[in-house]
Amino acid sequence: MTDKRDEAETDDIPAGMLALDQQLCFAVYSAAHALNRTYKPLLDPYGLTYPQYIVLMTLWEEDGRTVKALGMTLGLDSGTLSPLLKRLEAAGYIHRARDRSDERQVLVTLTGKGHAMKREAVGIRRQIGKATGCSLEALQTLTADLQALTGRLDAGAAQDDAA
Amino acid sequence: MTDKRDEAETDDIPAGMLALDQQLCFAVYSAAHALNRTYKPLLDPYGLTYPQYIVLMTLWEEDGRTVKALGMTLGLDSGTLSPLLKRLEAAGYIHRARDRSDERQVLVTLTGKGHAMKREAVGIRRQIGKATGCSLEALQTLTADLQALTGRLDAGAAQDDAA
DNA sequence: CAAAATTATATTGCGCGCAATATAATTTTG
DNA sequence: CAAAATTATATTGCGCGCAATATAATTTTG
């Protein structure tokens, strides 16, 4: 973009020491996997995966959303959500139905089992909180920093699309 | 574990506001996806996925590792690595060969193309750095916090295994 | 109002990530 | 040293996550 040339000298990184940006990427990658592993034994008894649990959390906040609305909140498209929602329905947690006033849309609503799961989530939340071993402030800071990072990354991607 | 009862009142979270620990989990989840999306257009021209790129980075640090050693570093098992490495070999980036002194092990080494990719990585690294939009200090703090989090999560999981 | 464009969801195919299992090589045990 | 246990890798099956495509409903355009 700029016509500067003289900032190209990060060329070689001392052996045994990754560049910081690579470290960050790997740290996010590893943390995501570690969280997944931590959730797994807590969710297995309910037959839920972590992404399915996230969808339920979203519905606990606001029930009766469309697939599209869920996708916007979670950053997922129908290619991921459609089969996931079918499994959640098969497991009895949600119900899917075409919107009568716009038959293109599918409304996703919690079943009794889906609502009941919210109470079970209290224990899960407590265990995850314990496992992170973070103070409330640390949790807040880290969350805010990650949200800011995600925002900047997505903003950059959107800009690239425009070009 | 403790016999206290009087800390069970996080039961209900105000509507429209997720508990902080859930926010953190979702923030990590979203950041990982955002990073993946950012890497994708940069790696596509080379026919590489982000996990494959991570494996290459690991080999740039120390070539000639076993599958097991790679797995320890990356937190992945052979179920993930075996097919991934086969694809990296098919793409010409690495070579796989049984260790002559212990035929159970497979040694993974970079090809010329695999080594050459390290130079291409300089540009990718710069673009990712720009996309994160972080100061060096912010990058360092965030990385360290995430590494600490991952460490605590994995330590907890290891403890559970022992029980 | 009919044709074209847009929108919402679903499907297919591919690459992880992981659990469960299989296989072959090596080490330990009796 | 032979049998049993362990170790390293590979394979199968399932659920994401995403790109590409298909389909049906709705909206826009002429």
TrEMBL record, chains A, B:
Residues 21-148 form the HTH marR-type domain. InterPro entries: HTH_MarR-typ, MarR/SlyA-like, Transc_reg_Sar_Rot_HTH, WH-like_DNA-bd_sf, WH_DNA-bd_sf. Keywords: Cytoplasm, DNA-binding, Transcription, Transcription regulation. The keyword Hydrolase does not apply. It is found in: Cytoplasm. Transmembrane segments: none annotated. This is Transcriptional regulator. SUPFAM superfamilies: Winged helix' DNA-binding domain.
